[in-house]
Specification:
The protein has 296 residues and is α/β, with parallel strands linked by helices. The chain has 2 domains: 106 residues, 2-Layer Sandwich (Nucleotidyltransferase, domain 5); 175 residues, 2-Layer Sandwich (Nucleotidyltransferase, domain 5), CATH 3.30.420. It is built from 10 helices and 14 strands. The strands form 3 sheets. The chain has a 6-stranded mixed β-sheet with strand order 3-2-1-4-7-6, sandwiched between helices. The model has no long low-confidence stretch (mean pLDDT 96).
């Protein structure tokens, strides 16, 4: 029987597949996210599995993320919070692609104290992976931030994802910096992204809609560059998100892309918070390995 299996994180914007053998990653393939497919999810996955099947047999595939969304590979639903790893694993959905068994992990759902609905897909795998890699996160209470297109702030209590909230900060930045008039044309100007980011942090507790316009006005009157303006929007949005979630003296665990996490660390440090950084790829692999070990 082959010891080769596939772990995958299939998000809205990209697909990341990892071929595993002898307990380690032996190869990686990327592909389009669920939101950018030109063919069906099944045929897109089958095409990539075929690359590896020519090299060796594949025992099974375990996926998380938007692969389990309605209309994607197979609908996996949401495990309700509070959810520990066992409750999450119970909601696994199975299918077959190219004759290979595929397990798709569910997302998590919850309602805030005000009854507001919240959902996540993919981040839960990172949370359970983080607790597997760092058992101390499974004891006591911890606040974990997962920056991204839709940033999550999750409260962990004794190994359980108790609740979480979402801030679509990355999506807002993409829309404002790429689709609006706020950053203006790509013409010469002064100021770097980092300098703009610092200015955005300075204004992060002001009313957001009014503060946004400095991105444009500073270009017109102060000769700021497009990079400065983009940095300003990033600092303002991230700073506003952090101000709503974190207070001075708190310890926050950040899980995600190193470059994006560094911006959040900067905003948190400015609020006198302590920060612990964990790599997003490492935690999602740990979570997927945990899932496969229990469900195969």
């Amino acid at each position: 029987m082959t010891d080769t299996f596939i772990l995958g994180d299939w998000g809205t914007s990209r697909l990341r597949l990892y071929r595993m053998g002898s307990g380690a990653v032996t190869a990686r393939l990327d592909g389009p996210g669920i939101g950018a497919l030109e063919a069906s999810a099944e045929s897109t996955l089958a095409e990539r599995l075929d690359v590896w099947m020519h090299e060796s047999a594949i025992a099974d595939v375990t996926l998380c993320g938007m692969a389990g969304a309605a209309g994607a590979l197979v609908e996996a639903g949401y495990a309700p919070c509070p959810a520990d790893a066992a409750r999450w694993l119970e909601s696994c959905t199975r299918t077959t692609v190219s004759g290979i068994p595929v397990a798709v992990m569910p997302g998590l759902s919850c309602r805030t104290s005000n009854g507001i609905p919240e959902v996540m897909r993919g981040e839960e795998t990172q949370l359970f992976g983080a607790m597997a890699l760092h058992p101390e996160l499974g004891e006591g209470e911890h606040l974990v931030a997962l920056p991204g297109t839709h940033s999550k702030w999750a409260r962990l209590v004794d190994g359980t994802v108790e609740s979480f909230t979402t801030a679509p900060t990355g999506e807002l930045f993409a829309l404002l910096a790429g689709k609006s008039t706020l950053t203006g044309p790509d013409t010469p100007g002064n100021g770097t992204f980092d300098e703009g980011f610092a200015r955005g942090l300075e204004r992060n507790e002001e009313p957001l809609t009014a503060a946004l316009f400095e991105a444009r006005a500073a270009r017109m009157l102060d000769g700021r560059s497009k990079d400065w303006s983009r940095g300003y929007l990033s600092g303002l949005l991230i700073g506003s998100e952090v101000a709503a979630q974190a207070s001075a003296g708190m310890t926050i665990t950040l899980i995600g892309d190193p470059a994006l996490s560094a911006l959040y660390q900067r905003a948190l440090t400015a609020r006198d918070c302590s920060v612990r950084l964990l790599d997003g790829d490492a935690t999602v692999l740990a979570g997927l390995n945990l899932a496969r070990g229990k469900i195969v």
